[in-house]
Amino acid sequence: MKEFKLTGTHIDLCDLMKLVDMAPNGGVAKHIIATGVVKVDGVVETRKRCKIRAGQVVEFEDMKVVVVL
Questions:
Q1: Of 41, 36, 60, nearest to 51 (Cα)?
Q2: Residue 10: which CATH number?
Q3: How many CA atoms lie within 13 A of 60 on its CB side?
Q4: Which of 3, 7, 24, 38 is least crowded, fewest Cβ atoms below 10 Å from its Cβ?
Q5: Which pTM does this prediction carry?
Q6: What is the pLDDT of residue 43?
Q7: What is the residue range of 22's domain?
Q8: CA 12 to CA 6: how far, in whole Å?
Q9: How many domains does the chain divide into?
Q10: Where are the beta strands (DSSP E) in the chain?
Q11: Residue 21 has what pLDDT?
C-alpha cells in the first residue's frame, strides 16, 4: 500500500490517480473512474472530481493508496 501526503484539505480523485501513477494523465484517470473500477473506502466511485481527504483509501486494480496529512 502506498501513502500519499496531502498538502491541503483534499485532492480530486482524478488528480490523485495521476500523481500516484494509477493513470498516465488526467484524461485517462477520468476515463478509468467513469468505468466504475475505482473504489474509495471500499465503495465504487464514479465521480471524477470526488474530494479525497486524509484517512481515505483509493483502490484500482492491484494498487491501494492511503491519503495522509
A1: 41
A2: 3.10.290.10
A3: 24
A4: 7
A5: 0.93
A6: 98
A7: 2-68
A8: 11
A9: 1
A10: 2-5, 11-12, 38-40, 43-44, 51-52, 57-60, 63-68
A11: 95
